[in-house]
Design a protein that fits this description.
This protein is of the alpha/beta class. It has two domains: 12-35 and 270-366, Rossmann fold; 44-261, Glycerate kinase, domain 2 (Alpha-Beta Complex), CATH 3.90.1510. The chain contains 15 helices and 13 strands. The protein has helices at residues 12-26, 44-50, 83-87, 96-101, 105-116, 136-141, 197-201, 209-230, 246-254, 261-269, 271-277, 297-308, 323-328, 337-340, 352-366, and strands at residues 54-61, 67-75, 78-82, 121-125, 145-147, 166-168, 180-185, 257-260, 281-283, 287-288, 312-316, 318-319, 331-336. It has a six-stranded mixed sheet, with helices on both faces. A three-stranded parallel sheet has the order 9-11-13. The chain has a two-stranded antiparallel sheet with strand order 5-6. Strand 1 (54-61) and strand 2 form a beta hairpin. The longest helix has 22 residues, at 209-230. It is elongated, with a radius of gyration of 22 Å.
Length: 393
């Protein structure tokens, strides 16, 4: 069982437990292992904790300056931080105003907290950001100063970057010189342009068309200022647009490197060793759709399973890909909670785990076990029966 979170309904571990229950319904003697996966967004810390890390919580500024308590993980000399825990979209109600003024300052405070513990390897998962500030809030929390033409500091938020004229890095926390920063994410989006941070993601953050123009101009200004200060061209960086440009800002100012989120988690969790043991791997997420093909964790699991010669099954909240697409990427069988529940909306509440469990049975019933040599004794995998209600549905 190697699922990502089912966003808004189940954590990765809860999803793994629900899928596992469905497997044991279908084949009581099956041996199962859980490997929680993630791609750099929400659920990354949970996946690291499942791999044996210790949990830490720190109170920091949220994306609009209010106080939030953000969880992160420590594994040996490494800290793993989710930007979304302090600066995530789930922490506010998106509007045009929040799109302009949300920031990442609290995420920088989490990095400082890691440095305070003597940690010198910091991994930052940058999915799920509420802001388009190019990481300037985060960098300001670490001592950088972003100045306008008169030498005053520009305000927090992406919309203020149009006033930016200079960055002063002399006050950066000196401990950063001895630290290694790695950005993990699932979006190889550039900073600017049609596929960039503003065009691709600011609408879901509440930005109007006018605000999008301001945010794009601000990021372009930031890129020019950083290039002048450090010689790093974040506008040409493939991953620079992730998390509202935070990935680009971290690279441009601090020299942070980039790693695919699923590559990082797969190695940390020992996914290759688990696949070598398994007859079958089941992965999934809340919505398995075209975005899943852009580096999301379940696709990474499927690709590794196919490469290892292990059949892969997808169980998701909903599946929005044609059967031909599913087979093309190597999925052997699939089912969704949405198609298993009596009505689609019932799949997300009040008992989402139940419908994921039933979808797992449905997927295993559809899977062709001939030739796998799997040491299981299935009960028959009877398909889920639809419930007839008083209104005839």
């Amino acid at each position: 069982m190697a699922p990502d979170k089912f966003k808004g309904t189940l954590t990765g571990l809860e999803a793994a437990n629900a899928i596992s229950a469905g497997v044991r319904d279908w084949a009581p003697d099956a041996q199962v292992r859980h490997v929680v996966v993630a791609d750099g967004g929400e659920g990354t810390v949970e996946a690291v904790l499942a791999a044996g890390a210790d949990a830490v919580a720190t109170t920091v500024q949220g994306p609009l300056g209010d106080q939030v308590t953000a969880g992160w993980a420590v594994l040996g000399s490494m800290a793993v931080i989710e930007l979304s825990a302090a600066s995530g979209l789930q922490l506010l109600r998106p509007s045009d105003s929040t799109a302009r003024y949300a920031h990442t300052f609290g995420s920088g405070q989490l990095i400082r907290a890691a440095l305070d513990r003597g940690i010198n390897r910091i991994v930052i998962g940058v999915g799920g950001s509420a802001s388009t500030d190019g990481g300037t809030g985060l960098l300001r929390a670490l001592g950088a100063r972003f100045l306008d033409s008169s030498g005053g500091e520009v305000e927090l938020g992406g919309a203020e970057l149009v006033r930016l004229a200079k960055v002063d890095l002399s006050g950066l926390d000196p401990r950063l010189r001895g630290a290694t920063l790695t950005v993990i994410c699932d979006v190889a989006a550039p900073l600017l342009g049609f596929d960039g941070a503003t065009a691709a993601f600011s609408t879901q953050k509440g930005a109007s068309r006018d605000t999008q123009e301001v945010l794009e101009d601000g990021l372009a200004t930031l890129a020019a200022v950083i290039d002048h200060a450090t010689g790093r061209d974040i506008a040409s960086l493939s991953w620079g647009g992730a998390a509202g440009g935070t990935a680009g800002g971290l690279h441009g100012v601090l020299g942070a490197g980039f790693v695919s989120g699923i590559d990082f988690i797969a190695e940390l969790a020992g996914l290759a060793e688990h696949l070598a043991w398994a007859d079958l791997v089941i992965t999934g997420e809340g919505s398995f759709d075209r975005q899943s093909l852009q580096g999301k964790a379940p696709l990474g699991v499927v690709e590794r399973a196919v490469a290892s010669g292990v059949p892969a099954v997808v169980v998701a909240g909903r599946i929005q890909m044609a059967p031909e697409q599913m087979r093309l990427i190597g999925v052997s069988a699939w089912a969704s909670a949405e198609e298993t529940a009596p009505r689609p909306h019932e799949a997300i509440g009040p008992s989402p785990a139940y419908w994921v469990r039933q979808a797992t049975r449905r997927a295993l019933h559809a899977f062709d076990w001939s030739g796998t040599g799997a040491a299981v004794t299935p009960l028959g995998g009877i398909p889920v029966k639809r419930t007839t209600t008083t209104d005839g549905v």
